[in-house]
Structure formats: structure tokens, C-alpha cells
Amino acid sequence: MAIKKKIYFASDFHLGTPTHEKSREREDRIVRWLDSIRDDAAAIYLLGDIFDFWFEYKTVIPKGFIRLQGKLAEISDSGTPLFLFTGNHDMWMFDYFRQELGVEIYREPIVREFSGKKFCIGHGDGLGPGDRRYKFLKKFFNSPLCQWLFARLHPNLGFGIAQGWSRSSRAANDQKEQFLGPEKEWLVIYAREVLEKTHFDYFIFGHRHLPLDIQLAPGIRYVNLGDWLHYNSYAVFDGEELRLEYFTEREPTHFSSAVDRKN
């Protein structure tokens, strides 16, 4: 049996959009990817927007996604640590995944050290300059009052409203993001600001829906994980090197983004 030494990172599955059929195809593909990495994964980090919408009532969760949940439970039960971040689409995760699947939940970026390398890991929403409207809405949606009010709605109504929001999202409309350039990418700006105070070797985020690998300084990189709507991209750290790869149903292939390793 292979030694489990690799750390895997993926984000932005957006299960539930744009249609049930396409979501199911994507879910099956993600499950096959998890099967392909489980034997050598020392840990798996899922960095948010796993679902296009998620809300946990006290006794009700959204219908579907059972294949992914079953695979995560299987991997967790085998002893491989799983870490799940909330994103801007699935911030209303509470205790279900922790209690039922043994998955740790994070709502803010965290710091980890692997093989002497320091990582800043998070979904990426609400970081960096600008977007004050979203930052206000995020604070409101994360408030106990907002969550309490939404929980008062019958699930049929609550999930119906959420599906209406989802249909207007960039994921539902199949919109590919465009690279803004290293001076305008807000997560790059955020990473550079953090580096003024604290050293990191790697910044790993999702949210942008673009596989990006940008050198911020010698030996320091910002990596965005892309998404599984268009790229099937993820990152893997083998103890020596962090690589962006994409799942091709065969062997993992190194992914060279449009700005791979550029300043």
C-alpha cells in the first residue's frame, strides 16, 4: 500500500447547478476523483462552494448529493482527515457534516504547515479590497438573526427561494471568469498585503473559478484552485512541491494556467 503523504485541495464544485442532470454528472466525476486519490491522500481540503446552495434546518438538509456525502463518509471512516470550508454559496453549514461525516468545518482562512512550508488556506470570498456590498451581505447572512429567520420558512419555500437566487449566479449561467492581471486580482492584492506582516510559502484559495499559479516573490506563490464546472482542477502538495492538476479520468496531468508561475 502506498504511503499516504499527499495533501489535496479542491473547491467550487457548485453541486446543484445549472441542472439536476449536469450536477449529477459532475458529482459522479468528483466521486471518481476522490476514489483516485484516496490511497495516497494524507488529508483532503475542500475549499468552499461545494454546493451551489446549502442550508441545514434542525432536521432537514437539501435533497441530493448523497454520492458525494457517502464517499466523504467512507474516506473519513478510513482515517483520512477531511477539512471543509464554507463558501459564499454554502455558508449555512452547521453541525451536519461534523456529526455525520466527521468532517471539520472552517469559516475563515486558516494557517497550516506541511513539510516546513507555511500555507494560508481559505475559500477567498470577502478578502482583499473593494466589494463592500458583498462584505456587508456576508456579515448579514452569517448573523444568527438571519439564520433564525430563514429557518422559520418551510423547507419547500426556503429552498425554492434559494434556487431562484442560484439561477442568477455565474455558475448557473456558465460564465467563465477572466483573469484581471496580477495588479487587479483582489486575492493577489490580499496575499501581498498579508506578506508585508507575515511570511507564507503558499496562499491557496478558491472562489475565483480560475486555475491560477502566480509567483508573488521568489519561493512564494498564490494558487487558485479553479472550479469543476469548466476545469476539473485541483492542487496537490507532495511534501516538496505544490502543483495545479486537472482530473482527466486517467493519470493526473499538470495544469499550466494562463499565468502559470508568472509575476
From TrEMBL:
Keyword ATP-binding included in the entry's annotation: no
TM segment ranges: none
Classification via InterPro entries: Calcineurin-like_PHP (IPR004843), LpxH-like (IPR043461), Metallo-depent_PP-like (IPR029052)
One function term, GO molecular function aspect: metal ion binding
One Pfam entry name: Metallophos
Coiled-coil regions listed in the entry: none
GO cellular component: membrane
Record keywords: Cell inner membrane, Cell membrane, Hydrolase, Manganese, Membrane, Metal-binding
Domain Calcineurin-like phosphoesterase: 6-210
Name by which UniProt lists this protein: UDP-2,3-diacylglucosamine hydrolase
Organism: Anseongella ginsenosidimutans
